[in-house]
Amino acid sequence: MKRLTAILIWVFLVLAGIYAVLRFSGMLAMMLDAGQPPQFQFGADAALPEAPNYFISCPKQMLPGSNRQMESPQFNASIDDLSDALIETAPKHDMKLVSGSAEAQHLRFLARSPVLQFPDWVEVKLMAVPTETE
């Protein structure tokens, strides 16, 4: 029994060491290619991409018919201020700005899960809240 316990501990330590090298050297992120982000046009009649982890948040009148959506939050701030805040805080959430700028009002981030570094695209389009008459 002691021998089996020692072998299991040894196997665990070896696997933990391999994981630590892959994770903290950046090799794990390189091995998990992010691919290309899905191309999507907003609209109430838009079909979401087939990927099961695709989720959309947008103004109520633009929501597509799907269970993978929610109404987007509204902020009492200018688009420039909000864009600057998103860019500034992205690294704190393991997100890297890949394209876009505050001036373009369109930002694309690459986010990675904390442990296994799985890639996810986060695309943000900043806009003024449409009124009911628009």
Can you characterise this structure?
This protein has helices at about 1-25, 25-30, 80-90; strands at about 55-60, 70, 95-100, 105-110, 120-125. It has about 130 residues and is of the alpha+beta class. The protein has a three-stranded antiparallel β-sheet, with no helix packed on it. A two-stranded parallel ribbon has the order 1-2. It starts with a helix and ends in a 9-residue tail after the last strand.
Q: Using DSSP, what is the number of strands?
A: 5
In terms of DSSP E residues, the strand content is: 15-25%
Helix content: 25-40%
Broad shape: elongated
Radius of gyration: 21 Å
In the predicted model, the low-confidence regions spanning at least 5 consecutive residues are none
Span between termini: 74 Å
Order of strands across the main sheet: 3-4-5
| Class derived from helix and strand content | alpha+beta
How confident overall, as mean pLDDT? 78
Total count of helical runs of at least 4 residues = 3
How many strands, what sense, and barrel or not for the largest sheet? 3 strands, antiparallel
SSE sequence, one letter per element: HHEEHEEE
Descriptors:
134 residues, alpha+beta, two-stranded parallel sheet, 30% helix, 20% strand
Q: Mind sketching the topology for me?
A:
Blueprint: H1 2-25, H2 27-31, E1 56-58, E2 69-71, H3 79-89, E3 95-101, E4 106-112, E5 119-125
